[in-house]
Write a structure and sequence with these properties.
619 residues, alpha/beta, seven-stranded mixed beta sheet, 25 helices
């Protein structure tokens, strides 16, 4: 496919050279390019298709990198990357040595901040804007925040601290609300009026002049401001943003690139923080994504000529097996509830939602609230299951400690995307959960296949109480692990034919690599057994006693080495008097690539070949 207008964009600033009438054609080119490119590589699609015109308008009006753009969440930055000269990198998007799927200051000085999690951009933007003030630097700071991020409390903490930052613009990208309700002739007129620099100048000068009137000046200003609030309530239905210190503008058609460019150009002169409310369509330009944007939020490579609805024909995965099993348990257990944080489809809880909607709760992008909400449910005799990705559970660490664990409440944490995760790189790896759950004394189970997932999920729901966690990998089970079945034991010894004095130990998806490593060692003449944990914390009864029979133990885990399960096992063995050789292989979190899982394992020394070499060279 040819892209005549996108071809004119080779570097940052080139969009300013295009005639105004070509901007809609450029947007069409960008949208077509993103659909074609992401269909080949995979990536975040719906969110990027929705912000094309917004991003073009910002680049048209702003001067980067003097002006700063902060994305919340950063996966909506693809158009920004195209406009800053990184088009060639899309051929290797989210691949080793390729373009990151998130903003990356290492890639470009036009990327202000890494942003893989939600509800953070406003706080960051306030810090950047305040730093500009302190350093007396020119330039605007723009935070682009989706309506989903406004379900997270951190946004409101930031809004409470804007305090007259007249170099700050917050863009609410609203892709939920109908645009027809409020965007009429009057609203359009007021938007044009309120973004005109003359309006700001007159407003500031009038308020200053009135305040100088002895005795009544300040009171008169307050009366006029209250009168304006009454009018705004009738037009906009809310004055919350202005009451928190913003100049509210909108709602505006987020796909009108000409109007957006005019607004951002006029906002070069402002006297207070501006809150611009735009309305967009997520997935715009690709009909299946428009109709089902959640399913096209993050996609693998797909065939544009044979698109299906992923919800109607979902690919088998740990998430879907978990969701189906939990829905079945929900029918049996009347007080079982399911909670997620804006990830109904990603966690597989759409099955529970369809089966038992009255006990399903999507709290939005608010992991802290999800965990404390679950604590409230549990305190009243309900059995809540909180299903969140491992990387996002980090955001609720305090709530796990204070609101769940102190009272030993019956909350089950379902940790999706545990271990190494492909594509997203350093922002989304599930490598910390075993450390933080075990640190505060919460039992953790890590099944390696579907059979174990379903068995232990039922056990954790029906027979176990108190805080507990079950973690599982992204994607499908591996054939070698499926063949192991489920014994129902907290750990399994997978012994070779010969008497071995070495053993490889792991859990979850990494079990695949220790099995393959043992086979490689067998071909090298070394007998090695394997030990697969399901209960990873606390260490199962009898485990240390059994492992003490081996002279060399290699422990491999897709979690951070420091504070992980391997270190805890080594300490327990030494405390029991074992004096053998312990080799620990975990994740070094100082460099995390965006790559496939096999590539990540090779990079971290967690692949079968490296594990086998460790055993051969250290014996």
């Amino acid at each position: 496919m040819k892209y005549p207008y996108l071809d004119k964009i080779q570097k940052n600033g080139d969009v300013k050279k295009l005639p105004q009438q070509e901007l809609p054609l450029l947007c069409e080119d960008i949208r077509n390019f993103l659909i074609e490119s992401v269909s080949s590589t995979g990536g975040h699609l719906s969110s990027n298709l929705g912000v094309v015109e917004l991003t073009v308008a910002l680049h048209r009006a702003l001067t980067l990198p003097q002006d700063k753009i902060l994305f919340d969440v950063g996966h909506q930055c693809y158009t920004h990357k195209l406009l800053t000269g990184r088009r060639e990198g899309f051929a290797h998007l989210r691949q080793v040595d390729g373009l990151s799927g998130f903003p990356s200051p290492q890639e470009s000085d036009c990327d202000t901040f890494i942003a893989g999690h939600g509800s953070t951009a406003l706080s960051t933007a306030i810090g950047v804007a305040r730093a500009k003030k302190l350093k007396k630097e020119p330039g605007k700071v723009v935070a682009i925040i989706g309506d989903g991020a406004f379900t997270g409390g951190m946004v409101y903490e930031g809004m409470n601290n804007v305090s007259n930052l007249n170099n700050l613009i917050v863009v609410l990208n609203d892709n939920k609300m109908s645009i027809s309700k409020n965007v009429g002739q009057m609203a359009n007129y007021l938007t044009k009026l309120r973004t005109d620099p003359k309006y700001f100048r007159v407003k500031a000068h009038m308020e200053t002049a009135l305040e100088r009137i002895p005795a009544v000046g300040t009171a008169l200003v307050e009366v006029l401001q209250e009168g304006k609030k009454i009018i705004r309530r009738g037009i906009y239905h809310s004055t919350m943003f202005e009451e928190m210190g913003f100049q509210y503008v909108g709602p505006v058609d987020g796909h009108d690139v000409t109007e957006l460019t005019r607004i951002f150009t006029n906002l070069q002169e402002q006297y207070s923080p501006v809150f611009l409310h735009i309305v967009t369509q997520k997935g715009k330009g690709l009909k299946p994504a428009e109709e089902n944007p959640g399913e096209f939020h993050s996609v693998s490579a797909f065939d544009l000529d044979h698109l299906t609805n992923p919800e109607m024909s979902p690919k088998d995965s740990f998430s879907n097996r978990f969701g189906n099993k939990l829905a079945a348990l929900g029918r049996e257990v009347p007080n079982l509830c399911a909670i997620t944080a804006a990830m109904k489809y990603g966690t597989g809880l759409n099955f529970f939602y369809h089966a038992i909607p009255e006990r399903f709760f999507d709290v939005g992008m608010a992991e802290e609230h999800a965990v404390t909400f679950a604590a409230g449910l549990a305190s009243q005799g309900m059995l809540p299951v909180v299903a969140i990705y491992s990387t996002f559970f980090q955001r609720a660490y305090d709530q796990m400690i204070h609101d769940v664990n102190l009272m030993h409440l019956d909350v089950l944490f379902a940790v999706d995307r545990a271990g190494l995760v492909p594509g997203d790189g350093e922002t989304h790896q599930g490598i910390y959960d075993t450390g933080y759950f075990s640190q505060i004394g919460i039992p953790v189970y890590s099944p390696c296949n579907y059979a174990e997932l379903e068995y232990w999920l039922e056990a954790l729901v029906k027979t176990m109480r108190g805080p507990r966690a079950i973690r599982y990998a992204r994607g499908e089970e591996k054939p070698a692990l499926a063949a192991l079945g489920c014994t129902g034991k907290p750990y399994d010894m997978l012994c070779g034919a010969d008497k071995a004095d070495t053993v490889l130990v792991s859990y979850g998806a990494e079990t695949e690599e220790i099995l393959a490593a043992a086979e490689l060692l067998r071909h090298q003449g070394m007998a090695a057994d394997c030990c697969k944990l399901v209960q990873v914390y606390p260490l199962p009864d009898g485990l240390c006693r059994q492992l003490s029979n081996y002279k060399t133990i290699l422990f491999a885990e897709e979690s951070v080495a420091t504070g992980g399960i391997g270190q805890q096992l080594c300490t327990a063995l030494q405390a029991a008097g074992w004096q053998g050789r312990f080799i620990l292989r975990g994740v070094d979190n100082t460099h995390l690539l965006h790559a496939t899982v096999p590539q990540l394992r090779r990079d971290q020394g967690l692949d079968a070949h490296t594990l086998a070499q460790d055993m051969l060279t250290r014996n």
